[in-house]
Every structure is written in structure tokens, then in C-alpha cells.
Amino acid sequence: MNKKYGVIFALLLLTGCGESKTGEPVTSYAQPSETAALSQTEETTSEAVHDIDPEAEGKGMEGVPYFYSPRPEEITFVPSAESVKYSGRHIEYNDISYLSYTCSAVRFNMTGDRAEAVLVSNGGAYSDRQQGWIGVEINGELTKRIRLEDGEQSYILYEGEELRNAEIAIVKLTENQMTNTGIKSITCNASRIAPAAEKELQIEVIGDSITCGYSNEADGPEYGFNCDYENGAATYGYLTANALNADYSLVCISGLGLISNYTDTVGEREDYLLLNDVYKYTDTNFEQRRGIEPLSEWDFGEGSDIVVINIGTNDYSYTGRDEDRQYEFYEAYYAFLGDVRQHNPDAEIVCTMGIMGAELFGQIEEAAEDFSRDNSDDRIHTMKFDYQSEEDGYGGDYHPSVATHKKAAAQLAAFLETLM
Q1: Where in the chain is the domain with CATH 2.60.120.260?
Q2: Do 365 and 396 form a contact (C-beta atoms < 8 A)?
Q3: Among 344, 350, 362, 376, which is most exposed with the fewest C-beta within 10 angstroms?
Q4: pLDDT score, position 62
């Protein structure tokens, strides 16, 4: 793509965190954007009801809306490419739009005073600690966090004074394999509904529990995994995308590895759903659990502008210091770079590791250097994350805390800015 884009490197703000203790939802709402308000002409000259206004584009709007009416009324719609913009991967099943990975989201613009959604959730085998959470964003600010109940329920996203052309997003805050979160329908009392605008920059982050935000809001390392302590909107990948004003896709699963997932015993491989079993498919976990064959391949389109690969922490639990197993990791990493390049032909690819240890970073550097040389590819880069500091606290099981994620986002965003 080689887009020319002017990126303003903003100060990182932890806008996705709300209260530091996850159990309390945020209740304050963002103010609507006055610069995006509808004009009086737009409000009064169309008679279209529950339909696309054929004259809307000529009235100065950014695009033809999905729904336009001269006065507010109740409109119910099913998320689709015509009605919303998706962030991250999603999968359609039984007329429900399931958000696949951490921070996958639907985004739409609304002029109206109320929005609610019918959501379908499954908290998994351990519903006490695997219940899904969503966040509601208004104009980029996380204004509400909702703990979902099992089954089909209706949830209020916003109710209050009229928002004028405000962007509303439903964001999955919990990770892929622990919870299923589907959107069955969205109902708004509104005069306008339209998909949110696309952004010029697209970033994809590939990773494991670090990227998922594994228990990042837990009060200390003695806590294990619990969705109640996991906030995807306070992860380094999400914060980096916000800092660069980029659309994003996070492809991450806790315990994920390239040649072995996390294992308790060095040398004993755990190979259920490795990275290669996941990356090219839309949502391997979702479809395998439902016996769907063949798996749906993800449509990468033209690919992302930036791809960040943060993998290897779990592989080291298998390789240890064994040179043969570490070389096996090098070979697999080299091959995976070819897969990433195939699906993202114009991307700057950043290979990184280090927040919870950098034992295999040497093999990553070697694979990146060799692939770059062998393929005359000068858009392969390496960057070692700073190791997490005890001063910043720890999440569950010594995973990075929110403070560590914020520092990692600052480091990564600064590095990406040098590439652009």
C-alpha cells in the first residue's frame, strides 16, 4: 500500500482503564463531538425513513448513512459491513456477529439519545472467572464496562442527552478462548446511524497472554487468571494503536507459542493450537468447538501497514537452554515471517519480545536478519521490550500490570514512529 500518512504522535493516555479495580464499571460519558454534528439542512430536508438517504452525501456528510430520518425514531439493526465498522477479527454464526479476539469491536456513528444491544455470551466451563466483559466507547473514551451474563441478554450502551454524530463502539475486553461474545442486534433511538470512519493506518499485533492483557488489573502476582481482572483496553497493543490513531487487530491467545504453547516441563511440547493453527484462520477456537469444517480463512485484504509479532515467551518454557530446540524455534520463526509477509505485502514487520523475558530474542534477531537478507526485504525490524519492573507491580501470575502495559505502549509507539 505504501500510504503516505501524517501520524501525530500523541501522549499516551490510559483511556481504556476506568477505575484500577475492574469490578466497578465506569459510569461517566464522553461529550459528543460538536465538529461532527449534523447541519440543520441534513435534519430537515430528507423524508427517508428506515432507509439510506440518497441525498445525504451531497449534504456534506462523510458518507451515505445506513439510516437517516428527519426526526429520532427507534431503529434495530444487525451488525454488518453496511451498518458498522469492525475493528479486529469477527465471525458470523447463526445470524450473530461474534467478536473474536481481544479488543475486537463494532463501531458506528449515531445521532440519538439511546443505544442498547442484545448480546450473546458463554462464560465457559468456569463461569465464576471466565465471564465475558465488554466496554462501551463514545468518541474514543471508554465510558462503561459491562460484565456479561450467560445466554442472551439486552444491555444499555448509552442513555442520556442527544449525542450528535458520535462514534459508539462495543469492544470485547476479554480474550479469545475464555469467552464467546456475540452481538445479535443493536437498537437505537436515533435520526442517523452510519459506520464509523476508516483510519489511514492499520496495525496488527500478534501475541500471547501478554498481548491479551492476562489479569493485568489484578492486585498482585498471587492472583491467577480471571476475566474480572482482564482489561484489553489497557493493553500495550490497544494503547499503541490509539497513540498512532490507527485501526487495529489483535490476534492473541494466552499460552500461545510458535513451536510449543506454555508447558510446565522443559522439553515436553504442548502443541494444541499453535500460532500457525490460528493466524490464517478467522477464529480457530470458535469453529473447532462447534465442529465447523473446513475452518474459515481470514480475509487479510491488502494487509496491514504495520505488523507486530510478540511471540516466544511460551516457546522458551519448552526449549529451555537446549540449542537444538532453540534452533527449531529459529526455523519456525523464519518460516512464519514468510507467512506474515505473504498476507501483508507492504507492511513494516516488527519482531519483538522481552516484557516477561527475552531468552529467545537472539533467535528472533537471527531469523529476522536472515529472512531480510535472503528475501531482499528491508521492512523487517527487531525491537526488544524493556523487562517489566517490580516497581510497576504485577498482574496475575506475574504478568504485566496496567502500568507496565502503558510503558510498553510508549516504547513501541515511539519505535513505530521512527519507521514512518
Answers
A1: 69-195
A2: no
A3: 376
A4: 52
